[in-house]
Amino acid sequence: MIVSLLALLFVVLIIVLICKGCSGRIDALAGKWDFDGTTAYEFDGKGSGAMLLTLADYDFTYEIKDNQLYIDFVNESAHDATYEFSVKGDTLILIGGEGTIGGTYELTKVHDKKADK
After folding, report:
1. Where's the DUF5640 domain (predicted)?
2. Alpha carbon distance 83, 86 (integer Å)
3. Based on the number of CB atoms within 10 Å of its own CB, is 92 exposed (0-12), middle (13-18) or buried (19 or more)?
4. What's the alpha-carbon Rg for the chain, to the nearest Å?
5. Closest C-alpha to 59, from 76, 38, 37
């Protein structure tokens, strides 16, 4: 009886740990990244985001596969794009691929001042 109960508790514990490990993952891009003071990208860590401009915001969905970032803008006036990316500390490097002019862009992580206190 005690052995069965311990075995059941062990199985439940393993399931809880597996579920905990799979949930709540945040990708490396989660947060807001500033490009030039007037253009920023915001990623929610779950596949949605926005390009934030001074006069307009452009919502998008995104997908990460290995070091490739695929952005699909909701508004068709913004061009969907593919980038190779890397994150080193507070720096995001985007290298333009399909749907871009092919440049390399360096963005800086924007920290929420409330969260930093």
Report:
1. 27-108
2. 10
3. buried
4. 20
5. 76
pLDDT value of position 41: 97
The set of residues, in sequence order, having a beta carbon less than 8 Å from that of 58 and lying 6+ positions away, is 50, 51, 73, 74, 75, 78
SS3 category, 26: coil
Strand partners, 65: 68
Domain boundaries, the chain: 26-110
Residue 25 has pLDDT above 60, yes or no: no
Q: Which two tokens stand for residue 25?
A: 């993952």
- Whether residue 55 is predicted with pLDDT greater than 60 in this model: the reply is yes
What pLDDT does 101 receive?
A: 76
26-110: CATH class: mainly beta
